[in-house]
Structures are given as structure tokens and as C-alpha cells.
Amino acid sequence: MVQRSTGWFEFWSWVAAAETAAWRLKWISIPVMFVVLWFGAKLYRSIKQQPARFCGLKYARSGLLASALVAFLIALLIGITVPARLRQRDLAKEAQMRAVWYTFEAATLEYRMRYHTYPADLKDIRERVPDPYGQIAEALNSLDPNGYQPRAEMAAASEKSRPLRSGMAIRNASVSTAGNDIPPGGLVFTKFELRMPGEDKILGNDDDWIGRDGILVRWSDVAKGGVGRSVSAGALQP
Known about the structure:
The protein is of the alpha+beta class. Among the domains are: 11-88; 199-238, no CATH class. It has helices at residues 11-24, 26-49, 57-115, 122-128, 135-141, 219-223; strands spanning 148-151, 191-196, 209-212, 215-218. The protein has a four-stranded antiparallel sheet. The longest helix has 59 residues, at 57-115. It is elongated, with a radius of gyration of 32 Å. Residues 155-162, 166-180 and 228-238 have low confidence and may be disordered.
């Protein structure tokens, strides 16, 4: 409460302060709690067995009950914070995963703006995208190269092409040389899919993350039919 310095007359402020204190002192309070209970129970049994030799049986009983109540309150205050702390832990991990995804997505967009195609592999991003602050390299270091899959959509040719009429202008023709800086290979990738390992750092498990078309979702959600449900194994469909 001294650290918060607010809500001195609010009940839930005291509860929140007690939860924080119990959690921070758990590695000290829990051992002390067992020692106090053991010593109090032993003292109470000694007084009860020899009432003629010892006095204060009533006070010993009250002290033991008070110690048990304090131990129960400490355990309760620690226990009720566990679900919220687990949620915060999951949110922190998700935020870290999304930070890597957004950095990687920004790098791929930069690559596409420069070369009019998505990179063929992660090595192309390292070699061809400027990284003055090292954020892209840090993100790439946490990714498995096997999780990146670029795709190219090839336009299907028409079975029957119409002959051009005499004097008809050819439309959609371009003499621009903007595509001259496409990397060697000649294949233009228009989409990509990134599979990121989850907490176990092993690619191919249910805790993986799937990123595609600007969306990052858990693989378990995809498998259950959530956003981005896959029609075939390993392929995320919008």
C-alpha cells in the first residue's frame, strides 16, 4: 500500500496489495508457514498432554488457529493470482511472437517493394534488406528456415485465344524496366506462408504459429476450424 500510495480506504486495493505481497514473498512465507505450523502444533500437543506442568492451553490453541488462518490466507492469496499470472504469461509470449512476425512481415514488404517479389528464402532477406538496427536479424534468428514457404501464382493460359483485329491496339503492354532488379531465377513470388515454432521451439507441433496474408494465428486454432482454416495439411487458406 505504501508503494501504491492510493486507495487507502478501498477494500479491493488492500486485497490487491495483499496478493502482490503474498506473491513476492512466497519463497519466504511458505517455508516459514510450515515451520510455524509445525512448531505451534508440537507446542500445543505438549501443553495438552501435560496440563499440570504447563499452563496457557487456551492461548496455545488460539495461537495455533491464528497461525493456521494466516497460512490459509497466504495460500489463498497466492492461489487466486495464479490464473491471472498464467494469462499474463501467455499474453507476453504471444506479444513476443507477434513482434517477430511484424518485423518479418515488414522486411518481406520492403523486399517486395524493392524487387517486386517476395524472397525465395530467409537468406535473401538477410542479404538484400537493409537492417541498420539489427531488428530483422534478431527476428530471423528466432525462425526456422524450413517454416518459410513462398508461393507463385501462375496465370492459366486460355485454351482458345482470340485473334487480334486489324489495327487493334495491344493493351496492358508495358515497356517499363521496373522489374529489371528482380533477383536471378525469374520466378516472382506473390504470396508466402510462415510457420513459427511455439514454446517448445520445435517446428511442426500443435503449438506452432501460422502467418499469412497479414494474419498470424495459432496452428491449434486453424486445426479447430478457426480463422485461416487449412484445406490441406500445412497450407493455410484465408
